[in-house]
Amino acid sequence: MKDFSLLIGGKAGFGIDKSGLILAKIFNRLGFKIYIYRDYPSLIRGGHTFSIIRASVKKIATHRDKVDFVLALNQETIDLHRGRLKKDCLFIYDSDQSKDIAAVCGTGVSISAILKEENAPEIMRNTCIIGAFVKSAGIKREILEEVLRKEIPRDLELNLKVAFRGFEQAKELIKIEPLCNDPMPLISGNEAMGLGLVKAGLKNYLAYPMTPTSPVLHFLAELSEKYPIKVIHPESEISVALMALGFASMGQKSAVGTSGGGFCLMTEGVSFSGMGELPVVFIVGQRPGPSTGLPTYSAQTELNFVMSSGQGEFPRLVVAPGDAEEAYYWAGMSLNLAWKYQLPAFILSDKNMGEGIYSFDMNSAGNIEEEPGLKWGGAGEYKRYSLTKNGVSPLAFAPLKDQVIKINSYEHDEYGITIEDSETTILMQDKRLRKEQGLCKDLEKLAAVKVYGNKKSKTAILCWGSNKGVCIEAAEILNLKVIQPLVFSPFPVKQLQKAFAGVKKTIAVENNATGQLSGLVNSFDFKVDKKILKYDGRPFSLEELQSKIKRALK
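-> structure tokens emitted (554 positions)
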């Protein structure tokens, strides 16, 4: 098998996500490239949750509707996912609980009985069914044990005993042959962003927990035990933004994480960042709204919001990575560029990109090194907002002997003293806006727009963010071109013009109801002919998007 998918499902709160990761690491150990899609309700316990683990010989970043294996931890999983099964499939279920298995190809395991005999807790249903699957798929027991020993920190011996009981009860039905590839690290988009920020010199991360960026908070909290990072959970999103600005004013690189609802409360801080020239990175994990919306599902609905957030006019950097490698690279670049130009930077993420699990290739991700901001040389009297040709003022931080460092959210002069006269107001506004010119030149040296697929095709798929993976695979099947902008502000007009050269028809693919990217590119005179929009909180599967593109081509 060169490309296959497995679905594991059960009740929320019973370790489905961890089980999916263990299965992915088993496949990874066999040399396959991995992508995991996670689907879970906002209920802490009781709702149905499932993960689709896809394994392939090639790099992938999307899931398929049809699956080769289903591991059903309860009857509900059987009922909900019958339609996903391929004709030749393997269905593993608890024969003690699941009775209605007509027309289902598979094998039952006495999971409930095994748990009772071993006096094991209910959550170990997962390790039992994983053990049964490993045997059914012809995978060596040694690989199962190796992965479990690395992934299960508590009650390891009992988990092993239960997993081996499942293994022994099952029969080998197929054979997944290992590949001659070394295993790659498996990380989520959220973890990749955290690593990129740390590599670029992050000193403080602040967040009020909010799906889908809460995992960044948890991940960096773990890293703070080994690296010099402060990870802080303030009492509100307002406090998050203002504390980050305070850290920036003292010369410490800081980032914050939130979703659309929390970002609403941060927008005054965004404006302060623009006026005070305080560099902060905002990770905005998109999910369906308005208001609470679908809190554990995904969307691409905050592009317009982030592009125009905060009152007044000031330069900003807005990026939207599409997979783990881009999340790592652009998180680091966002922090570096924010400090180089002393402005706010925004990373648009979403649940599918942030919580998706990828095989991570550091060699293709791009090199990130910490870049210091422009420092004051110490001569004369310090002016925090010194007028310069490129708009970037040298930085100094308190305490500084015999100098005053003043940060101001009012309009101000070079020293930071509040003013209201016309002439100084124009000088300072022009100074701030000049920074965008240098930022644009830097971005021209980077791949702010990427092109994939058949680069000679006259039909292009335009996409952004987490739709990258599914659009690339669909375009490869249909022999089309894919254009993926990664930077939205400053808008990479020249790179996009080059990408669109020779294109006669453009089909935009987005996870929103209004076509926000389409509207943005149209404002720069790029034509979008058709839109494929999905806004139910779920991502496009490969089969679904391929079908929709075919209809759009007619």
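The radius of gyration is 26 Å.
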